[in-house]
Design a protein that fits this description.
19 strands, 2 domains, alpha/beta, Nucleotidyltransferase, domain 5, 7-stranded mixed sheet
Length: 493
């Protein structure tokens, strides 16, 4: 049985998954998992990229110790938008900034004095947001210009990590599509944007198609890890693109949801949709493994609950999924709502206090107990996903009947059921490790073991179990949704 290494690095943790394929079914084994969080230093948030690389090498060593000496290849997918800068000699110049860096908001505001959001969306099809690579670059230009002056090459996170393994400088298409610097409908950099902002487009490494081989692991890596050369493959470098490739979607009336720290909701489209409504409603167009596009909206996901857990742990309150489910059931439904995507929840000092203040300011009951806060978060998330799907139907003129959910958040069965209730759609949850499975699919296709995405999805369907959730309590959810829209202080409503 052939095997590949799929590195799936998220904004809260990273993992190495071993994917085996016998010609008919795939099998997944988690080899190693490690935490990954931004590091706050001197008013900036950074990624400890060298620690990530070190953990990846450790993961390979663990895999070898488990008897997996022979693998065909490796692939890397990560979150979007972030990047590292290399010098002329190929040295990493600094730890990459995190997209949550607070300076990016001001950087975006200043950049939009040179080019408008309307122009940016028309050129790129990507939603204007402070996390985007384009605004991070402008922020660096304003605050740390000598860094850009010394830089020769920009590599996006999965490609930066691949470079450390194989010394190849290129940026894969799907991860490049998150930057707001790619020409809409083309795998080409939109250099006019950078020129308007005074940033050199010479920084941008060439764009490579997914499902291609980047190169082999370096001799120094092979010697250190005591391995034979391993092919490093350009999989869909953006974790959402990998996740969507793994969802067993079999019709054109389905929505995908990639659920983790963020939840990305959308539908596949052949070409970017750049009409005014799409921009007004905050939709974006990003690349797929097939070289097409996903019309989607980026939404807050489990970040809200993750940050509440940080506060509870700081207060000495231990929690887990089982306890949270019990507390959720004990709390009354539809007690209070928040807009999960309000900027105040992006990176607050205390998420619980921020949620309570929001409810107070909107004249709602204030959630006090753990259960009330958990229910407030999960019901609000489900309501917002309904809002997104309603607008997807208007943009695509399709009646969407089914939601395919993948990612770690599907372990939260309450969220899956609430999403079914709020949207009045069947929810098909699984596979859990969708990003790593999609990562492996990219490798199997590049290696010639699978023909295409369609065949790969059929293999996923036969290889992994899914759970189905049917909507219930429709009338009460409809009236609650009306309250949600009323309470939520969002101009898009």
């Amino acid at each position: 049985m052939k095997k590949v290494w799929a590195f799936d690095i998220g904004a809260s943790n990273g993992r190495l998954m071993l994917n085996s394929f016998d010609g008919e079914k795939m099998y997944v084994e988690e080899i190693y998992r490690f935490p990954n969080h931004p590091v706050h230093i001197t008013e900036n948030d950074y990624w400890d990229i060298l620690n990530i690389f070190s953990e990846m090498k450790k993961a390979i060593q663990v895999s070898i110790q488990k008897g997996h000496e022979k693998v065909e290849s490796m692939g890397i997918d990560t979150w979007g938008v972030d990047f590292g800068l290399l010098s002329k000699t190929g040295e990493l110049l600094a730890n990459p900034y995190s997209y949550r860096n607070p300076k990016n908001v001001k950087g975006m505001e200043e950049a939009l004095q040179h080019i408008t959001s309307d122009e940016l969306f028309a050129l790129t099809g990507v939603e204007t947001a402070p996390i985007n690579t384009i605004f991070q670059l402008y922020t660096i230009k304003q605050n740390n210009p000598e860094l850009l002056e010394r830089a020769e090459t920009l590599l996006l996170t999965p490609n930066l990590l691949a470079y450390l393994f194989c010394n190849v400088k290129s940026n894969e298409f799907t991860i490049s599509s998150t930057t707001q610097m790619l020409r809409a409908g083309k795998a080409e950099w939109e250099t006019d944007i950078l020129e308007k902002l005074g940033v050199s487009s010479d920084l941008l490494a060439p764009i490579k198609e997914p499902l291609t081989i980047a190169g082999d692991t370096l001799p120094s890596i092979n010697k250190e890890l005591q391995i034979d050369p391993v092919k490093v493959i350009h999989v869909a470098g953006h974790d959402t693109a990998s996740a969507v490739a793994a969802l067993p979607i079999q019709d054109n009336q389905s929505v995908f949801m990639s659920c983790g720290t963020w939840v990305l909701i959308g539908v596949p489209v052949d070409e970017p949709l750049t009409e005014d409504k799409a921009m007004k409603w905050g939709f974006t167009n990003e690349g797929t493994m097939e070289g097409k596009y996903r019309l989607q909206k980026n939404n807050m996901g489990m970040w809200l609950l993750q940050q509440c857990r940080v506060i509870w742990e700081r207060e000495g309150i231990q929690t887990d999924y089982e306890k949270e489910n019990y507390l959720f059931e004990e709390a009354a439904p539809f007690h209070s709502f928040i807009n999960p995507d309000d900027p105040r929840f992006f990176n607050p000092a205390n998420m619980i206090v921020e949620i309570q203040q929001y409810c107070q300011e909107t004249s709602q009951p204030i959630p006090e107990t753990q259960g009330e806060i958990i229910r407030c978060i999960l019901e609000s998330l489900a309501m917002k996903y309904n809002w997104v799907i309603n607008r997807l139907e208007k943009l695509t003129t399709k009646k969407l009947k089914r939601i395919h959910i993948g990612g770690g958040a599907i372990r939260n069965k309450n969220l899956c059921q609430l999403t079914a209730n709020a949207t009045n759609c069947e929810v098909v949850a699984g596979p859990v490790e969708a990003s790593s499975i999609g990562n492996a699919i990219g490798q199997w296709i590049a290696l010639g073991e699978m023909e295409d995405i369609q065949q790969a999805r059929e293999i996923v369907h036969h290889s992994f179990s899914v759970q189905h959730y049917q909507p219930t309590e429709r009338s009460s959810w409809q009236s609650a949704y009306e309250r949600f829209v009323q309470y939520v202080n969002a101009t898009s409503y």
